[in-house]
Amino acid sequence: MRRAIAGVVAGLLLGAAPPPEGDSHRDLEAVDGAAALATVKAWNARSLATLEAQPHFAEDRARAARLLADPAKIATPDAILGDQVLNLWQDAAHPRGLWRIADLAGFAAGRPHWRTLIDIGALGAAEHRKWVFKGAECLAPAYVRCMVALSDGGGDAVVEREFDLAAGRFVPGGFTLPEAKTSLAWAGPDALYVATEYGPGSMTRSGYARIAKLWRRGTPLAAATLVAEGEVGDVSEAVASYADGDRQWPMVVRGIDFYHRAASHIAPDGRLVASPLPRDAQIEDVLDGRVIASLKSAWQGHPAGAIVAYRIADLLAGRTPAVERVFTPTPRQATVSVAAGMGRLWIQYLDDVSGRLVGLARDPAGHWAGAPVALPDKATVHLLAAAGRSAIAFAEVEAMLQPPTLYAVRPDAAPAVVQALPARFDAAGMTVEQRFATSRDGTRVPYFLVRKPGAAPGPVPALIHAYGGFELPQTPAYLINEPYRSGPAGLFWVERGNAYVLADLRGGGEYGPAWHDAALREKRQNAYDDLYAVAEDLVRTGITARGRIAVSGRSNGGLMAGVAMTQRPDLFGAAVIGSPLLDMKRYSHLLAGASWIGEYGDPDVPADWAFIRRYAPYQNLVKGRRYPVPFLYTSTRDDRVHPGHARKFAARLQDYGDPFFYYEAIEGGHAAGVEPAQDALRAALVAAYLELELPHDGPARHIGPR
């Protein structure tokens, strides 16, 4: 009965008279427009004045900065290059990071000797740029040269520069590419496959490269020869080269939409040979000459979610390759990541949202088998890297109350601890439970609940963090990293006697392709109904009460939080809306928005807009309705989700006389932060906001700045 009543309430809210379709705030889409920035600065100043004055703000900011800059953290293997390991290290002295290298054997033994390759902060200071390291593409099998990607301010667009690992410096006169959203791969020591901006007409509607070329050393980029060309309406044209022992297997991938792609192998003579995989399959890696791919839909007798393989040499020789079944998850499982090592395929998967890791080997008859690695249960497993010249891989394990531990895993051997972090907070009295709510259509929705039972009598304020999209699972992280993977606001919240929840909504990847498809396009409301079911379950079980629940999310999760605020103001008392999509009528025309049409639908198509319109937060704000006071945050330099979404939503709230908090960081890209100090500030702002709007000893106050 409770669920039926809630459904009626939601239906009434959805059916309320919508505001006019007109948009009077298009001027706020000018990212660096003088008027837009003046408005943003005024909102920032007003919000900061209130939040920084809260009792715990200074204490929280200082503690968050200490936690995030603490040098006692895992040195993760970002890549294994032959017998060496790469790592980007950030600490208080190097907030932008040190890109460094160590011997694999010493690293695996827990005694690495690091050699710094690039001090990112020092490089930026010398070149008067706000450099952010965005990764490197290194040439196998020698691993002497790399193409290093650097972003000025943290956006997705990067400058690419050739680097000599042995010499520890950029190559004078080496390959260099100007700022763009570039995809590249080595085509030998003196050539690159490059998909980048080549001038007018060379980019897709989504803002990514449309043309891939072969660029040879000593020639201008303009002289590069065509490899492949996509359509303007595609998402992107991308290139890749998979290291497999001493061999490279180059490919070009035409991204038709976010979930469909046409992959082709580049033969030694330059021919393009189409992969036999269905267009919604994802190529994961190459092992012993075989493509390893995950299936999103059933194909040739293999079920959706399965991992399959085929032999590349057969395809290049004109033969139809046999497709082998590598791994099949159960209905309660989902593959998360795959990495090929020396003769071994490592697969990270979820089992009812608990992390698992298995190493598989192929026998001569084409059968793949292996036993799960004995790692801690009821935790999150991150498969970090696998070695191509030795049978070793690395995995990190963490849980909400369990600090991260790095393991070296090998076939037929117990996992060995490489590095284990000490506890960073006192978890005494805290508990973690996995619970299940029942959604409106009867679907079982998992969530994790962290609290301190007995810390306070009766219902307490609750913070629900969720995402629900793009087949990305939400798995528990150590609490200092919750709820944004960049700030300890969740820890502060629980320590003060409140409840923190991580909800696993449909649309994510917690249970494989079917779980994602259940909230795709016209079925998106299922994800939001899942969120409301979790909130109502917390009320039903006495954890919290209506109006004392905050919803939190970033990016697609920011959309989710905006929807929750506008659809169910009866249920939520606060909303943390980070780097969000909110104007769903304009989203496909803003920056990379067109690339997400496969997820949401096309608002320019009337039939699609009919279902998008029902939940679009910007379009569903109604004057005179009492909403929870939101906290919106974004970054001016976010070149993925346009900051105009958050700006326009705030402006419409202002038009209607509704209070809100707003903070726009100048740099940080889509992550809305680059350095630990920036993440610490955001964590303290969120903590102050939550305490202000959902005080522990009373109902929501709704007192945001006007």
Keyword list:
37 strands; 706 residues; globular; Methylamine Dehydrogenase, Chain H; alpha+beta; Peptidase_S9A; 15 helices; 5-stranded antiparallel β-sheet; 8-stranded mixed β-sheet; 21% helix; single chain; disordered N terminus; Rossmann fold
Quick overview of this protein structure:
With 706 residues, the chain is α+β, with helices and mostly antiparallel strands. It is 21% helix and 32% strand.
Distance between the termini: 39 Å
What's the rounded overall pLDDT mean?
A: 93
CATH superfamily of the domain at 33-66 and 446-693: Alpha/Beta hydrolase fold, catalytic domain
Largest sheet: 8 strands, mixed
β-sheet strand percentage: 25-35%
**Which structural class should the secondary elements be placed in?**
alpha+beta
Q: What this model shows, in words?
A:
By secondary structure, this protein is α+β, with helices and mostly antiparallel strands. Among the domains are: 33-66 and 446-693, 3-Layer(aba) Sandwich (Rossmann fold), CATH 3.40.50.1820; 279-423, 7 Propeller (Methylamine Dehydrogenase, Chain H), CATH 2.130.10.120. Helix content is 21%, strand content 32%. The protein is built from 15 helices and 37 strands. An eight-stranded mixed sheet has the order 30-31-33-32-34-35-36-37. The longest helix has 18 residues, at 34-51. It is globular and about 70 Å long. The two termini are 39 Å apart.
